[in-house]
Amino acid sequence: MHIYRRNAGNYLQIVNTKPIYKKFDKKEFLAWNEMENHDRCMDVMNNKLKDEDVAKLLYKIINVKNKKEYIEKSEAEKAVAVMKLIDISIPLMQLSRVSGIYYNKIQKLRIGKEGKTVSLTYKCG
């Protein structure tokens, strides 16, 4: 960000800022860059749940007792259940392992068709 601001010290010019400023007004770009968002990064692992615990939550949400019953559910039902777990900050890679849904598909579920983060806000307990 300092490279775009150019007012925070003596930084090397390692980024070509011209393409950005051709597409965006500088003030607009800086404001957008500082906006709060709800991105969840793979390297932030504040979740301490084991896969087995996540599976139990998934089964509870989708109202099944075990993996066999889960597999028999429709893709839409599974997607809604996974979206609810995304909402409580279960890491996407872990959700992919537990749900059997490809990671890229889970990312698309989170982002939605309009490119906005989707939220179904689910409370556990």
Task: Give the class from helix and strand content and strand pairing.
Answer: mainly alpha
Number of helices: 8
Helix/strand order, N-terminal first: HHHHHHHH
Helix-residue proportion: 40-55%
| pLDDT averaged residue by residue | 76
Residues in β-strands, percent: under 5%
Number of strands: 0
In one word, what is the shape?
Answer: elongated
Largest sheet: none
**Whole-number radius of gyration?**
20 Å
Give a structural overview.
The protein is mainly α. 53% of the residues lie in helices and 0% in strands. The chain contains eight helices and no strands. It has helices at residues 2-5, 18-23, 26-34, 51-62, 67-71, 75-87, 92-99, 103-111. The termini are far apart.
Task: Provide a brief overview of the structure.
This protein is mostly helical and 125 residues long. Helix content is 53%, strand content 0%. Helix 4 packs across helix 6 and helix 4 (51-62) packs across helix 7 (92-99).
